Amino acid sequence: MKLVDYFRFCIRGIVQRKTRSYLTIIGIVIGIMAIVGLISIGVGMQVYMDEQIGKMGVNKIIIMPMPPGGGFGPAAASTYFTDRDAKAVEKVRGVDANCYMVYRTSIITYKDIDATAPIVGMVPSIAEDAYFDVQGYELESGRDLEDKDTHKITIGYWIVHKTFKVGDSYKEVKIGDKIEIKDQGFKVIGIMEEIGNRDDDMTIAMSLDDAEDLFGVSGEYDFFFVKVKEGADPEDVAERIRDRLEKLRGEEDFTVMTAAQLSETVGGILSAVSAVLIGIGAISLLVGGVGIMNTMYTSVLERTREIGIYKALGAENNTILTLFLVESGLIGVLGGLIGIVLGFGMALVVEMIGREMGVGLLHAWIAWELALFALLFSFSIGVLAGFLPARSAAKMNPVDALRHE
Description:
Elements: H1 3-16, H2 18-56, E1 60-64, H3 83-90, E2 95-110, E3 113-122, H4 124-135, E4 139-142, E5 152-155, H5 157-161, E6 165-166, E7 169-170, E8 178-181, E9 184-192, H6 198-201, E10 204-207, H7 208-215, E11 223-228, H8 234-249, E12 255-258, H9 259-302, H10 304-312, H11 317-357, H12 368-394, H13 398-403
Parallel strand pairs: 3-10, 5-9
Antiparallel strand pairs: 1-11, 1-12, 2-3, 2-8, 2-11, 4-9, 5-10, 6-7, 8-9
Helix pairs in contact: 1-2, 1-11, 2-4, 2-9, 2-11, 2-12, 9-11, 9-12, 11-12
């Protein structure tokens, strides 16, 4: 048989039983859509985090006052760093700069509209290299903070455009406007470009002196962002910092992480999440595979007499086997093509919703490698699901098949 004859046979079989075939294809579509969409989001999150961590550079170390494995962020900490801790870190061999920071959350007010935002206080000259480049902050307008600035702030994209809502619209904050924080007025001198993560885009940065005065603290720090000297090994420097702080504080009630360690930790979490998501999609696809098998068995039963005619005309067992394998594979491919398109569409919609909600972690990974993998996977599922029915058809006795009513 020619290749065109195989496809003519398969297409006729699909069209003649179009309702059953369409339902089977829908099963494959749902499975492939789920797998493509979930893999796209899972890998997209990993790529996004790698990019964000990559912005830190290999010469950055993050130190937080919490035990290893105790969580992330100031909310997980029960203690704070002190001036003595800050000076000790600065004296560690290989440390170029230590950006010690106050991090709090507070009610902010603009034109009588209240909102909640994270406030970061630091020494601007130190933070320029050790913190702002780590977080990926870049100015959209205005200027950066300077050490001499008092009651002046730089604000994130979200605060400017999507925080102070009146009715169905937002009041936008402009350079020179004042925002009240704990009943104190602060002048906006800089607006940051959008990063894509709501927490970062909601951040307000001010001088350390202003933050300490605002929150009534002195010498209590929530984070250290350390810049390592050129040529020094960040892992070695991190270990020296860990030893120094443990001796000074009497216990390891803190976490020291290099960019590589942070990437490994976050990557492990996201990989586990991706594995769960892929597993969910695989279950859906398995159901689609069972649907193909059921359709092919029914097709073999309904076409028993036709198979007998083919065999009487000289068709070999391998020819009959190939006919039904091509048909089941074609069903898998059709479902796969539609599922790929819908899966990528689903991932892009999730990314768009995440962006609107300020969840920058949700990113879609659109790549031909994923599309090719999904297409081959759906074809393989189709062929495997159709193998047993196809073999059953190939082994039919032509005389018995011709007698079948």
